[in-house]
Task: structure prediction
Amino acid sequence: MPSLLFFKLSSSYFWYFAVLGLVMPFLGIFLDYRDFNSRQIGEILAIITASKVIGPSLWAMLADKSGKQLRIIRLGAFLAASSFMVLAFVDGYTLIASFLAIFTLFWAAILPQMEVMTQNTIRRSPKIYARIRLWGSLGFIALAVAGGKIIEVFSPQAFIYIGSGILAVLWITTLGLKQPKIKRSAITKRSSIVSKLFTLKFVIFFIAGAFLQISFAPYYGFFALYLRDLGYPSYAVGLLIGLGVIAEIFVFIYAGKIFKYIDVKTALALSILVTALRWFIVAEYGDLFTLLAFSQLIHAASFGLNHSASILFLQQHFDDNQQSRAQAIYIGGVYGIGGALGAYGAGIYWLDGQGAEHTFILAAISALCGGIIAIFMPKRD
Result:
């Protein structure tokens, strides 16, 4: 792959996941700063997560029909940046929840199309994809660490200005991308995806993934507040989350080799089962930094291995002209439905920090259920 093309694709991944590196750890801090209680925070997280269910699928149908993923990526980045900037001028539960949902609706449309366009560009080489995706992880780490320090020095209100700047840069980087050339038949031939959605193999894949995302909800929404309540300094949030992402990077680097030794089913089941151990450690030993750091290393499996296996599963299970829709259903359904249910439940059980341990135990149970379900995935449809 030409170095300039690699740089452009990697830059887009870097800035896309830099947004996630800011939003995932610090949105809860920002909402707490705006005087929302844990139940309201859970509701807002559920609302914006649920917006991933509808948006990506609508954009994906257009992308599969036209084959023009880049147009959707650019439009999504521009509208996401615009809606996020509005947060600086609004206040109150309804307006903040609404504009966060609108932001997510457009931002979530970017990744499925970026994944498909990247796969078309690199001809689905796991080795090159892992190297490109690595820069996404680096972007996440950079903002998880720097974002915490900036927010500490100034105030949680800085969350809005940092995010707006990153989204603007993301949109600018998309202007340098080029739509890969694909066969005309891949654009015009559009087969039904319904039959493959209702195979036992995909249904189990979907349910197991949803249970995993339910388990991640307390981590995504309240981990920074959890560490604060345990007495950790603000920079510990970025360091611990960064440690988890560093662990995930090693999986992306060696993804090609890993799947020479284990199949997709084994990788999915293993990654979800060890996540149950991760949340148990967070619940019971959160005050011990060494064990908490060890739990973050499990992120290599919880996200790195699981995401790589899931992308590989979708590539194998669906046809070429179904990939945008498949990616949208995966991200919108598994992350959207699972994440929304988990966020709403976490907001109820968190009780402004009093129910933190109980909430993470429930997360561990959810992951355990998902892992057991994944074990029963058939190798053939």
Remarks:
- Confidence is low (pLDDT under 50) at residues 184-188.
